[in-house]
Amino acid sequence: MPQPPARTGPAARRRVLVVDDEPRIVRALVINLRARDYEVDTAADGATALRTAAAHRPDVVILDLGLPDMDGVDVLHELRRTSRVPVLVLSARHTSGEKVKALDAGADDYVTKPFGMDELLARLRAAVRRSEPVAAAEETVLVETGEFTVDLAAKRVNRGGRDIRLTPTEWHLLEVLVRSPGRLVGQKQLLQEVWGPSYGTETNYLRVYMAQLRRKLEADPSHPRHFITEPGMGYRFEP
Questions:
Q1: What residues does the Response regulatory domain cover (predicted)?
Q2: Which of 197, 199, 219, 143 lies closest to 174, judged by CA?
Q3: How confident is the model over 191-234, as pLDDT tens digits?
């Protein structure tokens, strides 16, 4: 899907869509985000969130899962039909299964309530960084396999003659791996490079996203040829 033009100069302020039905949390987020020069839109339910995202094209979404009209995971699925915008889930649901479900639906990160504002903002900044395009002059590498091609400069993946849509986090994970062909990349290194320096033990993130990359790019995801798991250690990309 064509992406909106990059914002530059005075208009380069990032736009955040906050989706939550708790007024106290929304108010705190709006105050803190605007104090850091973000533009902020808010939505108290899923339908409003989807309309607002389509109309204003946010740079990042903060999404609660417990919305009054629809589950936040369903909102995620709808967003991912048309957009690669980074989505940071903010939820009171603490179980590993709930986190995996949200990540599998296309979330880029997951923060549980109650939360620390500084940590949330750091994760938001990391999510935005992962989605930023690389300047064309910085990278000209093209990685080719028998099944797909990765254009690191254009941030595009082509398989069988068609472009494959990846979320920003899926792309970042792919990028780290294909830049080190044949080399084992440790779990901690992957987590810190893709999600940020405060990560290191959230191996369930890696399992979910590697499964998604395999589904999208491998000929036989259950017997991967290119994205190899080294149990207990990390992952390796074989061209």
A1: 15-128
A2: 143
A3: 988 988 888 899 999 999 999 999 999 999 999 999 999 998 99
The answer to whether residues 31 and 92 belong to one domain is yes
- What integer is the mean pLDDT of 144-172? 92
Query: Shortest CA distance to 237 belongs to which of 179, 172, 168?
Result: 179
* pTM (two decimals): 0.72
Pairing status of strand 148-151 against strand 142-144: antiparallel
Q: What is the CATH number of the domain that holds 111?
A: 3.40.50.2300
Same domain? 16 vs 118 = yes
Is 39 exposed, middle or buried (CB count within 10 Å of its CB: 0-12, 13-18, 19+)? Answer: middle
Summarize the confidence of residues 35-60 as an average pLDDT.
96
